[in-house]
């Protein structure tokens, strides 16, 4: 007996894109989503992958295991496509499922057809929330949406169901050295939290030194400890406290001299007045 398709992704799109952004108006308007969605069983020969798919390794992402799961349990989530020509459809989201169906030599695939002008934005929504997109790929895609579409970080946060602070830290990952950005996707044990902590270290040499330990179980705690060690090693910033203490001590000495009967000469009074003017000038700055 065939399983009923889970169409919750349609609701996901509608909820995320109908929310009002900080500048007014819905996020749907930013991406040209018409709201028209329909389901169809589409011949695989009429479906093509999206060349702008933000998940860089969609075809090789454990397709065999996914195909085995679909063969045993059926497809619970339809792919999402847009019609680019009569009887020609381009994948919006769900490319892994498409390749799994190809591996199973199926002739057709269940699809949710969405009328939209922006494929990448919708692909981001599903990949970010449902397909375990690598954090670097997600950061690159959000940076593109913010740069090309003028989204705010708050609006980008709505799209992926995270906070604005999370988006800001995620985008910070892109400041990491090129070597780390290149190698991180091949190290599944490296978490997004670890990458965020590394990115917040201001010293590239320390970032790279810590990264050498990534294959040996580097943890978020290790990076935070490195931050504390660096902070402790930095020289203390210049302080006016010692000079103020010396000034207070000298003023007390002058008071003691006056109390013991020593009068101030006129030139000494003049010097004190000059010192008072200098102190007043400092306080006005």
UniProtKB/TrEMBL annotation:
Alphabetized InterPro entries for the sequence: Chromosome_partition/occlusion (IPR050336), HTH_ParB/Spo0J (IPR041468), ParB/RepB/Spo0J (IPR004437), ParB/Sulfiredoxin_sf (IPR036086), ParB_N (IPR003115)
Lineage top rank: taxon: Bacteria
Keyword tRNA processing: no
SUPFAM superfamilies: KorB DNA-binding domain-like, ParB/Sulfiredoxin
Database matches in SMART domains: ParB
Ranges in coiled-coil conformation: none
Protein name according to UniProt: ParB family chromosome partitioning protein
Natural source organism: Azospirillum brasilense
